[in-house]
Amino acid sequence: MSVTLPSVFFTLKVSIVLGSLLGLCLGLEFMGLPNQWARYLRWDASTRSDLSFQFKTNVSTGLLLYLDDGGVCDFLCLSLVDGRVQLRFSMDCAETSVLSDKQVDDDSWHFLMVSRDHLRTVLVLDGQGRAGELQPQRPHMDVVSDLFLGGVPADIRPSALTLDGVQAMPGFKGLILDLKYGNSEPRLLGSQGVQLDAEEPCGERPCENGGICFLLDGHPTCDCSTTGYGGKLCSEGITKGLDLSRSLLKDQGVCKADCMWS
């Protein structure tokens, strides 16, 4: 089921998340090798929480993320299926899945968020949301495992994993940056076959005068709203920046005459 998100609110939310996190957090490079994995402290997805990260890949299949209740009933799995992102999850043994409309195996950066709110779980990819809803007897997801990124360790007993065959899924191949639980960076407990400190799209810090770098359509973009400067890189005086903003709005047909600011 598709979700229409208020564009202004969502853009601001994504900009704040990306702007505050890019350039500060750990990057991981996965080679798609057997028994590769990164293990993080548990994400409490039981009732209401967000998880987000950025990724880049050129492959069409692979396990992105997995967590469960220790082999009983509940799980949450993110994977690549035919070049799209699939969210598959279970609560109280009621299971459903959603698939993104957008292809992501294009070797470009993408922003992904999973938003949990009791019976409703939303997969958000580059600003487009798809929701999965269940009607189990209990309104929360049981989560006891750590969170696995890129693969699940082969030494975990299959009986302790809720989703059959998750260990046999191809490992993710590509880059993952800025894994967040809400606004917090989770603790990395360990990894195997993973290279740390991978490339970062805002690593060159292109924004001047305190501008905040974030991703927009896979490209580094500058948020100059708190700097007193304007322009693509927050390098232009505010008057020139406002003139440029007016010009852009006119070109896009937003302003029919002069754009006026108080």
UniProtKB/TrEMBL annotation:
Domain EGF-like: residue ranges: 198-235
Superkingdom assignment: Eukaryota
Keyword hit for Transport: no
GO annotation, cellular component aspect: membrane
UniProt domain Laminin G: residue ranges: 27-202
Keywords: Disulfide bond, EGF-like domain, Glycoprotein, Repeat
SUPFAM superfamilies: Concanavalin A-like lectins/glucanases, EGF/Laminin
Pfam families: EGF (PF00008), Laminin_G_2 (PF02210)
Protein name according to UniProt: Neurexin 3
